[in-house]
Amino acid sequence: MALLKRFELWLLLILIAGGLYYVLNLQPLDKTTGRKPITRAQTDPEQKPTKQAQPRFSLQKTTLSRDGDHFLAQIEIECQKDSDQTLLLNPPDTQLLAAGAREVPVFFLPFHKPTPIPESKGKTFTLRYWLTADNLKGPLTLKIAHSTLPIKTGEFKTDDLPDQQSRSFTSSQWVSKPNSP
After folding, report:
1. What three-state secondary structure class fits 105?
2. Residue 41 domain-assigned?
3. I want to staple 74 with a disulfide (CB 3.0 to 4.6 A). Which of 63, 124, 131, 167 is the partner?
4. Considering the domain boundaries, does residue 22 fall inside one?
5. Residue 133 is part of which domain span?
6. How many whole angstroms separate alpha carbon 75 and alpha carbon 57?
7. 81 CB contacts (<8 Å, ≥6 apart)?
8. Which of 10-24, 106-120, 145-159, 160-174 has the lowest mean pLDDT?
9. Distance from first CA to last CA of the chain, Å, rounded?
């Protein structure tokens, strides 16, 4: 077979095999050292892992913007952490759930990486979700890092928010009245 005698074919097969190996063994690198993180199980397999303190989250502000029949919710959350673990805020670890445990789709921007929560103790970050009017009829709950945070309780009248306008809320009790200038 003359095809297997071609140098270019063998080079291409080696590059494809190397690329597949790289993708399948890809792990996130530690930003401080530039190396793969070493877990406790790799250093001492006999030692049982201790339960790490879960991060605590608090709602700072929710900004709701209307765009036609849809709404963009920008949720500002503050995280208090006691551990050095970096958390990535992307599904399925972070989900906004509407009434009936329906998942609300994430609003993503092209070329925008998921928001990491660094090792710092207190950090405020913003999550964006794309809502419909049906999502706003009941409560909204943010499920994040094995904990839940109420974002909205009760019903919100979508007719009170005009198109291309925004409204900010600092608690989970949303009141249907316009912002004062």
Report:
1. coil
2. no
3. 63
4. no
5. 56-169
6. 12
7. 53, 55, 56, 87, 117, 119, 120, 121, 123
8. 106-120
9. 78
| 25-46 pLDDT per residue, tens | 776 666 666 565 555 444 444 5
In this structure, are residues 100 and 125 in contact, taking their beta carbons and an 8 Å threshold? no
CATH number at residue 94: 2.60.40.10
Within-domain flag for 77 = yes
How many folded domains does the chain comprise? 1
Closest CA to 175 of 57, 62, 59: 62
> What digits encode the pLDDT tens for the residues 119-167?
555 678 888 888 888 888 888 888 887 788 888 887 778 888 888 888 8
Identity of the residue numbered 53: A
Q: CA-to-CA distance for 41 and 59, rounded, in angstroms?
A: 35
pLDDT category at 13 given cuts 50, 70, 90 is: very high
Cα-flanking dihedrals φ and ψ of residue 29, to 5°? Answer: -90, 150
3-state SS, residue 16: helix
What is the pTM (predicted TM-score) of this model?
0.61
In a domain, 8, yes or no: no
